[in-house]
From TrEMBL:
Pfam families: 7TM_GPCR_Srh. PANTHER family: SERPENTINE RECEPTOR (PTHR22941), SERPENTINE RECEPTOR, CLASS H (PTHR22941:SF303). InterPro entries: 7TM_GPCR_serpentine_rcpt_Srh, Nematode_rcpt-like_serp_H. This is G protein-coupled receptor. It comes from Caenorhabditis remanei. Gene3D superfamilies: Rhodopsin 7-helix transmembrane proteins (1.20.1070.10). Keywords: Membrane, Transmembrane, Transmembrane helix. The lineage of its organism: Eukaryota, Metazoa, Ecdysozoa, Nematoda, Chromadorea. It comes from the Eukaryota. The keyword Membrane applies. The chain crosses the membrane at residues 19-42, 63-90, 102-126, 227-249, 270-296, 302-324, 394-417, 437-457, 477-494, 535-560, 581-606, 612-635.
Amino acid sequence: MRIACSANFLNFISSPDSLYLICTIIAVTELPFHIIGTYCIISKTPERMKNVKTNMLIKHFSTILMSLSMSFFIIPYMMLPALAGVPLGILSKLGVPVPAQMYIAVTGPAVTGVTILSVFENRFALLTEKIEWRKIRFVYVLLNYLSGLAVFVYPMSQTPDQNSARKELIEVSVEMSSRILGYGQWFSNSSHGIPLQNSPCFLELLGSYTNSIFIITRSPMTTAIPMIIEMVLIISQVTLITILIFRSLSNLKFRLSPNTYQLQRKFMKALTVQFILFITALGAPVSVFTFSMLLADYDQGINNLCIIGLSLNGFISTTSMILLHQPYREWIFGVMKNNRLCHEGLFHFLSSPDSLKSICHIITFIEIPFHFFGVYCIAAKTPRRMRNVKRSMLIMHFSIICLKLIMSCLLIPFMMVPALAGVPLGLLEDWDIPLSFQMYLAVTGPAVTGITIVAVFENRYFLVCNNFYWRKIRIPYILFNYLTAFLCFLYPILQVPDQSIGRQELNKSFPCILKQSKVDINSVFFFTTETLTTAIPMIFVIFLVFVQAIIVILLIYHFFYTERFKLSENTTQMQKKFMKALFGQFLLFVMILGVPVSVFTFSMFLDDYNQGLNNLCIIILSLNGLISTSAMILLHQPYREWILGICNKRSRRSSIITCVVPVM
């Protein structure tokens, strides 16, 4: 097979690092939408449609998992028309076997399609008058799930020997590298070990990932045929069941009330549109991949664009679900009209101050050993070649610990969002520390932690890139960042209103808050009557941290790409592994902080009070230290290898002890 290499306007997303960055940003951005979608299904599905709630949740979660597998867990860097690729996601860093990752990648859409089919089947089973169907429906649904899970087992069992298959892939891809991305002249003067005019065009994009290429199969039809069969099977079944449902509705028209009949029809129409959107969002990339294989045309920019499209499937599905289904849409539009709501919600068992205080204390007790472990890893197990980063890593680690202790021990803020009010339950309250200072710590802690993470990235840029001009301004730049973090919330703190007036306003606007929260109104601290006073500094700090981190990461990767022939292979690999681990830590921090902040923001925007949900957000923030420390140990190779080494030694000792048999 002769593979043609194309160059087009998508060359800027052709590299593995570009795909990794875009997909992780998509994963972080999608999470708030998925949370809202889950809340809509659980709390806003009408009572008359409660029978469909379980199937809707299963479908929603399968769509989320499929989207996250593409944008976070696996991130397959596909190299079509060859059925080969490199997984870039978190599962690779955790050492999950590549065949298992590829199986998840190809099985996810099939299982998601079956979950959508099960929602249609559920509606048909409830509406049909055929008793026979109700007897066999369990077997029918089970067979479909088994089909979705097993359809790619045979293709995955036929994966060839990777060394010989990789060599064959490189040999048949003999087009000149200059035909991709227009880099031929630049590379012709390089001192690369392989003559570029005889090397496959994709090698220049893969770089250090070349040895990680996984060949799924030598024969594309081995995978294409099961994929086509499964898609045809699902589409035909959904089409047939949809026709039968509308036929059943027509038969029941005069037996159902007009409202119930219209509700069923609207639900089915919305579900049908959702299915069409799912097939379109899945079918477009699959069609492009198919044509790429038929034409034997290699264009990595198009391949990456298709993976990005698959990563956006969850966002498209969740958004369409909320907008298409009338109960969810009316709730969203209703709360946008500033209707103030109070309800117990799903997490009512967490709504009391005592529940929050007890859980936070337990988290603190569990986390402390992990933090000591993390400090020891940085201080004693950081390689000598990376000793310049040790100080920045320690500062970042201590700031995360301080943020965690503020939330779970010193402060424990019992927040009453959407009102910017709360009751501190921690040790600082017992020590009679002023409430305004406690609230200042609560809002400043995440900002300072974010700046310390940016400082670690900046430290890498300074040491690796050795930019003369940056050396002159970096100290003022770092001081500006820290001063911004410490001072941006000073004005809101100084504008705290008279507490008696604030409490009266709270009781007037949200009379149910004090009733449901079961706290004394005199212990409530009212932060501000103007939401924007606090929201604007918060948005500014989040924007400052996120944008700076992304810019510095891109500058570092640009340096690695342009200077890769001047650096030794070991040095380049070590620096890139460290940067990926650090970027993973940063994304986890953004996700842990972003989920509660998003929930609080939506609560204020929608004027929706749910104390159990507020307390859950504080618990998530309290877990920040445990998750961040565990991620640091697992993501950074020297720390992970040391931990695994200790575990292996202990397992060997235990095996020796258990093998000793006393002689009687």
